[in-house]
Amino acid sequence: MLLNKHIIVGICGGIASYKAVDLVSKLQQAGALVDVIMTENAEEFIRPLTISTMSHRPVYSNLWEPSGQAAETHITLAETADLLAIVPATANTIAKLAYGMTDNMLTAVALATRAPVLLAPAMHSNMYTHPATQANLSLLRERGAHIVEPATGKLASGEIGIGRLPETAALLGAIQKTLGRHGDLAGRRVIVTAGGTQEPIDPVRYIGNRSSGKMGYALATEARDRGAHVILVSGPVALPTPYGVEVHQVDTALQMRDAVFDFITDADVLIMSAAVADFRPLHTAAQKIKKSSGEATTTGQSERREFSVRLVHNPDILGELAAKLSGDTGSGPAPRLRRHLIRVGFAAETEHLVKQAQTKLRKKQLDLLIANDVSRADSGFGTETNKVLIFQKNGAMEDLPVMPKTGVAAAIWDRVVPLLLL
Fold first, then answer.
1. What is the pLDDT of residues 283-338, one digit of tens each?
2. DSSP letter string over 161-204?
3. Tally of CB atoms within 10 A around 317
4. Is 92 marked active-site?
5. Exposure pattern of 360-369 as b/e (b: 16+ CB <10 Å)?
6. Which of 2.30.30.60, 3.40.50.2000, 3.30.2000.30, 3.40.50.10300 is the CATH number of 189-279+312-420?
7. Of 136, 209, 372, 386, which one is the catalytic site residue?
8. What CATH number has the domain spanning 6-179?
9. pLDDT, tens digit, for every residue of 255-270?
10. Which pTM was predicted?
């Protein structure tokens, strides 16, 4: 998404300007061509040498330099940019942009460019919530600017409130989302499930699995970067929420089933990458089960206690959906879908991978099934890479090489997009 993109980062004079150094570095590492424009006040907080060291490019700041070349430079920057990101955007610069003022290099480029403009406001809470600032931001939104809402937390003043510059990951997510707004999933609504489910035995114990959710989160992020409206139904995971993705947290398989059925009515694609528990306890204890519970048995000189948990099957979400859509009256009424729903399933297996995958594809009436051998060291739960086979309903099978989960996500969406055009 960022490779070879020309990103202009505008840095304004605020205490949060130091965070822009990390953003510039991450953009450059991702393969973007990064040009930085600093306001005069920004140079009071960080030095241009620091920025140029990170961007490997010269830093622009003086619109009035004596050679007159800046007049040509600001137009060239404006016309060649894929995106202008102003990080941090101060109340002063926001006001100038709202009223079309061009008294420095940054505001001149902002007025001249036709590339999307992204603003990340950062300032004291009182300044951010002031009616003047809010009116200026509303005016810029109306003109097409993309606003990254500031975070709430401890400010430079020591107070707690809204106005913090978001962390680099969120800023990168906002940039990628903005760049992908016209992608091949633009206007599409997709649902992705991720992570494992936790089926409670008592208030402190549960039955679960080793799923990290990384594959599902990669799928959700890739869809966002292609312009989709993404709903991520996630089991408990230790992953940050992707910027610009609508996340709904669930714990159990039943909760995930209910969430999926609530959201699919107007969805274009459903990708079930979550590792949904196959079983759940028939009964959940209201209080913590004590060690003294269970039946005592004596073996030789020692005594031990045995405790049994009776399990029942959890719903097969994709199987249940297939039954409903095929008119199986025993499965309840079919959901009222507004359009054809592309359905993609996952099969995490440890043996007989191809046979199991083909059976699931057919039984669940899927458009695609992604299968992987989770016993492999490079393709199991929690790994950064995945080795998958892609099965299509026409019988075709693709054997993809080991690649990062972000790459697998891109490959899956590459195969989903043509199905949306049928």
1. 999 999 987 776 666 666 666 778 889 999 999 999 999 988 887 767 777 777 87
2. EEEEPPPHHHHHHHHHHHHTTTSTTTT-EEEEEESB--EESSSS
3. 23
4. no
5. bbeebbbbbb
6. 3.40.50.10300
7. 209
8. 3.40.50.1950
9. 999 999 999 999 999 9
10. 0.93
